[in-house]
Amino acid sequence: MGQNPSSLATCLNAVCSGRSGCVAYPNTPLYQVAWVDRFNLDIPVEPIAVTRPQTTEEVAAFVRCAVENNVHVQAKSGGHSYGNYGVGGEDGSLVIDLRNFQHFHMNRDNWQATIGAGHKLHDVTKKCHENGGRAISHGTCPSVGLGGHATIGGLGPSSRMWGSSLDHVLEVEVVTADGEIVRASETQNPDLFFALRGAGASFGIITEFVMRTNPEPGNVVEYTYTMTFGRHRNLGPVFEAWQDLVVDPNLDRRFGSEFVLHELGAAITGTFYGTKEEFEATGIPDRIPGGKKSIVIDDWLGSVAQKAQESALWLSDISTPFKAKSVAFTRDTLLNSQGINELMNYIDRANKGTLIWYLIFDVTGGAISDVPLNATAYRHRDTIMFGQGYGVGIPKLSQRTRDFFEGIASTIQSNVNGTLGTYAGYVDPLLENAQESYWGSNLPRLEQIKRAWDPNNVFSNPQSVRPAEEST
């Protein structure tokens, strides 16, 4: 293990007490590859150190080391931040990697699961299934970490039916900026609990979640419609018909869908949690725009595996240099026919700089919208559709690809009434007024909570919540 003679290193080494695999520094062999492991290779980041604690007490001790040495701290669970915020987002942060927090327990009296924050989504699915056939709503990428996912939102195909991942969180164990270990829930430290559910990286390091679970659906219908067109402008009517379907206020909550634009055309994918007969009875199949159709009848685990395959197709789990851009649509800020046509025409004429690009529209709402806007830090309760652009550069990202996605966002924004927000789970390092875009009307309250719990901004990345200024 490489050694650093600094005061911080002395403190971190003392916490590790000689245990191998506990801490690494920039002069540690393979530091960037084996320890930092950036998800977005287009954004260089060098943490001052990366730690891998085994207990919550060690997490607290590492935080105290950082505070004593005036160093920012960020937690890493899966490390899938588009801006590499799990490793600080900028040079010089202390990273606390939670991979060792793998404990799991299912209380069969109330079906609440206690889950260590180092779990990947694939393992959450597997362990919930093995412990009573239970399930939690979450995203489709199997290697995303629960620690970040359930503290920023956590959206997936079942979210319209069950709510987001953070809506399943009932209680947490969290290390705060003073290096203390506390519990937070609706009754214990409720202000901190509010902030951790939607802006967690700014307020502490959660080491354990207590989450409600749901019975697994017995049947799941998976479908895919693929369309190949010479020009994307020909897809305008297809997208408009799909948008009309997914924004229907009476849309069955068991139904989730995506519209994916790519270099060769488009795909409409989706999931219905029920039988094929129930799916057909909703009338939804008759409203889905036509194309080459593939339907699979599956169970819960099969559906999760199918979605993981689709996620690997659209958004690779492999570290690459990439550009991402996202917007959030409410019922009042949807694209009309003219806006859709302008978007498709822009895509046709733009120099994309890569053949590996996707523009993915996801339906949301449903059970997510049942929760009041001010109940958690997550602000997108009135969002009914997200648009996410993603372009990969091989071997590196070009400026043309960056400009292409900025152009998509500006084309969309110029064709809607009002300002579009952005989901903090699709972090955009170049976003102006990022905190307002991520947290909207909840931001002032978050800034006050930050001042109360982390006035010195210990838990910080380039776009995290800042403490409110003291009133004079």
**Structural class, from helix and strand content?**
alpha+beta
Tally of separate domains: 3
Please identify the oligomeric state: single chain
Q: Predict the CATH topology of the largest domain.
A: Vanillyl-alcohol Oxidase, Chain A, domain 3
Number of strands: 18
Measured by DSSP, the beta-strand proportion falls in 15-25%
Helical content stands at: 25-40%
How are the strands of the biggest sheet laid out side by side? 15-12-14-13-17-18-16
Please count the helical segments. Answer: 15
Rg estimate, integer Å: 22 Å
N-end to C-end Cα span: 49 Å
- Average pLDDT confidence is 94
Q: Just name the CATH architecture of the largest domain.
A: 3-Layer(aba) Sandwich
Low-confidence stretches: 1-5
Overall form? globular
What summary fits the major beta sheet? 7 strands, antiparallel
What would your notes on this structure say?
The termini are far apart. The protein contains 15 helices and 18 strands. α12 packs antiparallel against α13 (399-413). With 472 residues, it is an alpha+beta fold. The protein folds into 3 domains: 7-97, Uridine Diphospho-n-acetylenolpyruvylglucosamine Reductase, domain 2 (2-Layer Sandwich); 104-216, 2-Layer Sandwich (Uridine Diphospho-n-acetylenolpyruvylglucosamine Reductase, domain 3); 220-435, 3-Layer(aba) Sandwich (Vanillyl-alcohol Oxidase, Chain A, domain 3), CATH 3.40.462. Strands 15-12-14-13-17-18-16 form a 7-stranded antiparallel sheet. It has a 5-stranded antiparallel sheet with strand order 5-6-10-8-9. Strands 1-2-4-3 form a 4-stranded mixed sheet. Helix content is 30%, strand content 22%. It is globular. The longest helix is centred in the middle third of the chain and has 15 residues, at 300-314.
